[in-house]
Amino acid sequence: MQMETEGPRLTDMLSQSQTPRNMPRPGETSARKSVTDSAVVLVLPKRLYRLSWIALLLLHVVVGVYSLLVAMLYQFLRKPELEYYFMYDDVWFINGAMDTRVLVSTTNVDLALKIYPFFECWFCMSGVKTLLREEHPMAPHLERLATTGGTIIQTSRHAGQQAATAQGPSIDLLRRRQTTTLLVPYRGPPVRWLQAFHVLFILLAVLVTTCHVLARIPTPTTSGCRLPVHPWFTTQYACSVLEINCYRRGIGGDAASVASVLRAFHHETIMSVIVMHCPALEIPPELQRLRSLIGFEIFNSTLLHWPKEAALTGRHHPALTFVALAYINMTDIPDGLTAETIDPLMDVEMSRTNLTTLPLAILDAWPQLSTFSIEYSDFTELPAFLTQFPRVSTLSFAGNRLQSLPDDLFRNFQFLIDSNFARNPLRAIPPSLSPENNPFFNLLRVSSTEVATLPEGVVGLMRKHPFELYVDATPLCRHVQADESSQLPSDIARQISASCSPASRYTWLEDAFYPLFVTIPHRQL
Questions:
Q1: β-pairing, 394-396 with 371-375?
Q2: With the C-alpha atoms ordered 279, 284, 286, 290, is the resulting torsion angle positive or negative?
Q3: DSSP collapsed to 3 states, 461-480
Q4: 3-state DSSP assignment of residue 202
Q5: 494 partner at 20 to 30 Å CA-CA among 31, 138, 260, 424?
């Protein structure tokens, strides 16, 4: 290291005090520019590398989220006329439930994990301005060098000599000074730490790839799976939609046989179970191991035994949303549906049963009930406690033997939207159906009944907002078509007449809320 200096003189001190602090001195501008250019050139490749990764991350987030939304809505965009029947497609519904979990957070931890990538993108973009900012060296000049050497101090009077040549000897006496360039090594993150992080991320990538490849290795095929999945860290066959067809398996439906089928699958991934064509069905306790269960359905079976030990409960099935029973031979609601409270249960639909009454225990077992339908059964009257389900939005008892309904049936149904009592020997609609009690009600089916008049509450609903009324094949239709309903306002009579046309008539399958015409093709022997 060499250093050449001159002692400070009075003229040097005078010249420095008279020079503005921020004004560059002669010969300093070119030196500063050269140092700045070299610093920018050294940092630019690394910054471009970081910016490239940030751009890829943003592209992945944006394209991934919007692609998922388009994939979920594709069927509706392609066929906008699709109605709620599409929700009864077993595979589509479960696929939609799994896709929705990618966008919707169900726990606080899930919410934090979904928000973190966006915060990471925001922090990265906030650092872009810092990465691209030009670094101006200050006097004494600091030049960062990626070297392992120590600090080097060089003293030069080259700029002073140039100034003396240009300005003459008299100026040299006032402008003589010393310029010091301090060269220091660049101190970034330690190399060992960088190498450790690189090795860690490489091992993580290898681990993720290995787990994915192992999960995709085909496992022995087990019949009955409608929607196979590929979770990590399991060797069992994984399935989300499971069909147990007693006819195809050659079993009668006893508890041991059904339990052996359930044990053959990875229980954590089963989200929907459909049991069908069982002449003597018994539900085993293994059903309580299915913690991911969203829906449970029994079709065309005789239900012999569903004990409390195999009950559907909120403790064992925190995600259970719907239960469907169709073409079932049973005379009462089984204990497996009323033993404990099923908090998440919102949809209970039954069709083609021999039920005649409902137990009081369903009030405590189904507190969140929203959709309730028991169609084509043997009900002759509705229990009075049915009005104690305040969250019901859909109520259907089509195809029963109801001659009358409780007068206060609709009094507590504040969120009721539609109701169906078609194909009953029903004589009148309860007066409690009104805009005051049911402000959101907009659909009523009383086709193929003995209804001859409409209460004032229904007329008020028809005038309040768009309303769908189905009264074909009723005395009311015959009176309107024969101009014998002078007590009805003309605008209401026109709406009734439109619903009485032959084109608005439905078959017994279409008159029900539970779409048997959709499910039957998927429940073949």
A1: parallel
A2: positive
A3: HHHHCCCEEECCCCHHHHHH
A4: helix
A5: 424
433-to-54, 373, 386, 419, 487 alpha-carbon distances in Å: 59, 18, 15, 10, 19
Do residues 373 and 418 touch, judged by C-beta distance below 8 A? no
Residue given tokens 């009668």 in the structure block: 252
Could you tell me the pLDDT band of residue 178, with boundaries at 50, 70 and 90? low
End-to-end CA distance of the chain: 94
Sheet holding 141-145, edge to edge: 141-145, 179-185, 152-156
Spatial separation of the C-alpha atoms in residues 449 and 459, rounded to whole Å:
18
Distance CA 33, CA 35 (A): 5
Per the listing, tokens 């990875």 go with 266
pLDDT tens for 333-365 read: 999 999 999 999 999 999 999 999 999 999 999
Asked if residue 414 lies in contact with residue 392, where contact means CB atoms within 8 angstroms, the answer is no
Predicted TM-score (pTM) of the model is: 0.72
Query: Residues in the chain, how many?
Result: 525
Task: Write the DSSP string, 132-192.
Answer: HPPPPP-SSEEEEE--S---EEEEE-HHHHHHHHHH-HHHHHHH---EEEEEEE---S-HH
